[in-house]
Write a structure and sequence with these properties.
The complex is a heterodimer. By secondary structure, chain A is an alpha/beta fold. Chain A has nine helices and ten strands. Chain A has a six-stranded mixed sheet, sandwiched between helices. In chain A, strands 2-1-4-5 form a four-stranded antiparallel sheet, covered by helices on one side. In chain B, helix 6 crosses helix 8. Chain B starts with a helix and ends with a helix. The chains are: A alpha/beta, B mainly alpha. At the A-B interface, helix 2 and helix 3 of A face helix 5 of B.
Chain lengths: 251, 244
């Protein structure tokens, strides 16, 4: 299966002594929904930032859509990032822009030939896709709920029709009902956007196993297990068994 | 920090154009500072004129109050006080805004959206500060001289014609330009320091507070230190080109 993201023997240290990633290798298949799980401090966010080109590996190689991230100049990297749509844990909406302006922003930046009414129309389509009521379009992020902020963040991530959608702990800190709503939103979006590769970093095991095609569990800067949710249920690795049983109980 | 500044300003002249951002920040730094600059400069002009009047009265030189105030304001007090006030007001706000954007992942969001954050966030702010500072200093100079006129003519009752004529005889365009040049440098200083501190904020709300505090304090101290060196450089320049 063709890989959208190829991580090859990546090591990362920030201080030259302690390694956060210790020779991590992972292939994320194109068109799949892959969840990256693991205990806190195992390098999930660091791995994600390598994929996005925000960090460069100390050694090893990160290839995204066939492009070696290290071979790109800063300007090329900036342009290359248009291939990503990212939903942040906090949604990271621009607080001085309305919901509609937030979603329009990537279009204004990267589709400069679009006329203002075309930008507006596209942004409204994306907001409709994530199920946000039009009455909230002209509100500021501080005037809408957490769930609506997530929807807006997702609509913004979808604005440029990216090839890779990244969800950075999308349900952390949300109540169970909102968590289920966001999980369903991710699943629906993945189904709706055929061919898009979705990568989700999550603590929420139940959600990861319910919606992901593949799951990668990190431990101590390496991939402990990579496979389908069934592979995890049937795993004999002690740490995986413990993580799965505790995680499912908690969920 | 120098690299941060040069790359941000260089990127400003590469597509896409950021003129709308520059105008937005000029409105914030310039337009919204006019009221506070006018108020402080009016009272600076009044207080400075009163002190100089009281001192010159002892040596019977009250006719020189006007030109002394005018030279002090245009060359020194205007740019320095404007620099300090605008660094505190707009510089602090810039550092806090960028710091908040950093800790709320908004800068990361811009990065992964393929937006050059230095070009979008930093360049326009520094450029707007460089443009606005001379304009605000011109406002300061004018209103401070209005304050001086009020004190000299209406409060201590000196001759209006002498006040204006002495200023006309003493103050030259180069004195005003010297102050405006300094002001542009102070704009560069607080723009650079405050955006740098804000852009590299770490550590949540506490970090935003520290970045703002460090940005404002460092800018203020640097404005005063750099003022001395720029004043000397201008003197050397005048001597080199033969200007008295």
């Amino acid at each position: 299966m063709e890989a959208a993201v190829k991580i090859q023997d990546v090591k990362k240290t920030f201080d030259g002594k302690d390694f956060v990633l210790k020779g991590l290798t992972l292939n994320i298949p194109k068109g799949s929904l892959t969840a990256i799980i693991g205990f806190s401090g195992t390098g999930k966010s660091v791995l994600l930032k390598h994929m996005l080109g925000l960090f460069q590996p100390t050694s090893g190689k990160v290839e995204v859509l066939g492009t070696d991230m290290a071979s790109l100049s800063p300007d090329e990297l900036t342009k290359f990032r248009c291939n990503f749509g990212v939903l942040f844990q906090s949604a990271a909406l621009f607080d001085d822009m309305t919901v509609l302006e937030n979603v329009s922003f990537p279009l204004i930046e990267h589709r400069r030939k679009l006329k203002p009414d075309e930008v507006k129309k596209t942004a409204e389509e994306k907001l409709k896709m994530v199920g946000l009521d039009p009455k909230h379009y002209h509100k500021l992020p501080s005037q809408i709920s957490g769930g609506m902020q997530k929807r807006t963040g997702l609509a913004r991530a979808l604005a440029l029709d990216p090839e890779i959608l990244v969800y950075d702990e999308p349900t952390t800190g949300l109540d169970p009902i909102l968590t289920e709503m966001v999980d369903n939103l991710i699943l629906d979006t993945h189904k709706h956007k055929k061919g898009t590769t979705s990568i989700m970093v999550s603590h929420d095991l139940a959600a990861a196993f319910r919606i992901a095609d593949y799951v990668a569990m990190l431990d101590a800067g390496q991939v402990l297990l990579y496979g389908t949710p069934d592979d995890f249920y049937n795993s004999e690795i002690e740490l995986v068994k413990r993580f799965v049983s505790k995680g499912m109980k908690h969920s | 920090m120098i690299l941060f500044m040069t790359s941000s300003l260089r990127l400003l002249f590469t597509p896409p154009s950021r003129w709308q951002e520059i105008l937005k920040h000029m409105e914030f730094i310039g337009n919204k500072s006019v009221a506070i600059i006018s108020l402080t400069s009016l009272f600076t002009g009044l207080a400075l004129s009163l002190q100089i009047y009281l001192g010159f009265k002892i040596i019977n030189a009250v006719n020189l109050v006007g030109p002394t105030v005018a030279l002090g304001v245009t060359r020194e007090l205007g740019p320095v006080l404007t620099g300090l006030i605008v660094a505190a007001r707009a510089g602090g706000a810039m550092a806090a805004r960028l710091g908040t954007m950093r800790v709320n992942e908004q800068i990361d969001a811009l990065d992964v959206m393929g937006v050059n954050t230095r070009q979008y966030l930093i360049g326009p702010r520094i450029f707007a500060a460089i443009i606005c500072m001379p304009l605000l200093t011109a406002v300061f100079d004018f209103v401070a001289m209005v304050g001086s006129y009020i004190l000299v003519v209406f409060i201590v009752d000196l001759d209006k014609a002498i006040f204006l004529e002495k200023i006309r005889q003493t103050v030259e365009v180069k004195h005003i330009m010297e102050g405006l040049f300094k002001a542009a440098i102070f704009g560069l200083i607080f723009g650079l320091v405050c955006t740098y501190r804000g852009f590299y904020t770490t550590g949540g709300a506490k970090g935003v507070g520290e970045a703002t505090n460090q940005g404002v304090v460092t800018s203020m101290v640097m404005v005063i230190i750099v003022d001395y060196f720029v004043t000397n450089l201008i003197r050397i320049f005048y001597l080199t080109v033969g200007i008295q």
